[in-house]
Amino acid sequence: KARFPKIKIGGFGSLGFRGLNRIDSPEVYRDSAAYAARFLAYQKANGGVLDFFTWYCYADSPEEIALHARYARSTLDGAGFKRAASHIVGFNIEAAEQGVYRGYAADIFASLVTAQRSGVDMLIFEDARPFGARNSLYTIDSGVVKFTSAKGALSAFGRLISLGSAVESLGDSRREIYSLAAVGGNSAAVVVAAREYFGKLEIRLKNSAYSSFSVRRIFEDTEYCLAERYRDNIPLAGNKISLVLESGDIYVLEFKA
Predict the structure, then answer these.
(1) Tens of pLDDT along 91-107?
(2) Burial class (CB in 10 A: 0-12, 13-18, 19+), 2
(3) CB-CB contact of 200 with 243 (8 Å)
(4) Across 32-37, average pLDDT
(5) What's the pLDDT tens digit per position in 117-152?
(6) Which residues contact 190 (CB under 8 A, 6 or more apart)?
(7) CA distances (Å), 246 to each of 23, 99, 100, 220, 243, in order?
(8) Cα–Cα distance, 189 to 83 (Å, whole number)
(9) DSSP labels for 144-172?
């Protein structure tokens, strides 16, 4: 730090906190939270530097990711590391280890929403290594690469980031509808993920000056690969949009003035 003051130092790659809410977890996971607390206490007592805390999270739902993320944030704050960032350096939905499933796209995007709103500063999807045990981003068969719906979820989130400025977007946790929105220049986007809900959704826009929008639906095809449907140049009259959602799908709405 004295020589390179801008360098970031952190660790340690905790196994995560599934032992907090899973009574059937192996002992190594049950002890992980306590070990992390001892690590942080040791760092604080010995003047250690911790710019970021790294941990893994293979959850069974977006809500479990949020639970663990809040715990990580509160543990860092309680140990005196309020400025330390919380980095999930390995994330996925646990069920994907057995293969991509219907609704995987919505689960991935909903996890990004809950992580962002629960104190996570960085999240790394694991993984995309060819033939890796956790590779749920694409398949390779006879030299042909096919992407899973996870790519659609990550690209939707990336579109929001590219716009630059987040704006308030209220989902509906009761119906498991997750949403994020962003604006940039003369454009805006809203992304909606419907985990279990099927039916009509009404989106209301505030202070909207947009005249048209497009809709991109992201879902899994019959082989659980990425599929998309797109409709462009839809006139926008007033501040209400009605969509019929399919459970497990993602909808990307883009607006132009």
Answers:
(1) 999 888 888 899 999 99
(2) exposed
(3) yes
(4) 95
(5) 999 999 999 988 887 777 889 988 888 999 999 999
(6) 169, 179, 180, 181, 203, 252, 253, 255
(7) 34, 21, 18, 11, 10
(8) 31
(9) EEEEBHHHHHHHHHHHHHHH-EEE----B
